[in-house]
Amino acid sequence: MEFRLIYEGPLPAQGSGGGRAKEKHQIRKQLHPQLAELWQQHPVLRSLKEQVNPLDKSSYVDYVASQYTRLGYRFVPLVWRQPDNVATCELDILFLRRDNPGGILVSGGDIDNRIKVLFDGLKTPKVVEDLGGFNTPDAGEDPFFCLVEDDSLVTRVNIMTDRLLLPMTPPGNPHDVVLIIRVNARLVDADEFYS
Hints:
- This protein is of the alpha/beta class.
- The protein has one domain.
- It contains five helices and seven strands; from the N terminus they run βαααβββαβββα.
- It starts with a strand and ends with a helix.
């Protein structure tokens, strides 16, 4: 399954002590409605979403959410470890920023530490500190759709940087970015993944 996600806004560098939980959850919050729409539009996901377990009348999405109910949220990662299969994904990221070519290493933080913040924003939080103060879901965030259970399920990443030519509108920041993330997700046999 191949699709694209778009993130627009701040992408600060991860500090040496970690942190940036608020910014990471804001990334999740921006991607959540796009992933929810993917579950509505993609024929396979829509079919899964509409399936009902005859025993307890729960849907597939409710089943996944029950596996990731924590911290007051019901998370639904698209890419997760299942009993017999493991979903993995590859990412191609077009990283647009308002810097001259090569400026990514100077202005706004180096790309490695900015991408670490993005990766943490793609996965389901594990502890309350990961929520960055967003301790309860907002309207429309139950369930809360995320891309991956854990970033170890991302098997390949390709990043291309380029100049962002959109005019900055208030209250924009010159270090804000636009990311176009092409996701290629697939199921692999659990034995193959763990061998």
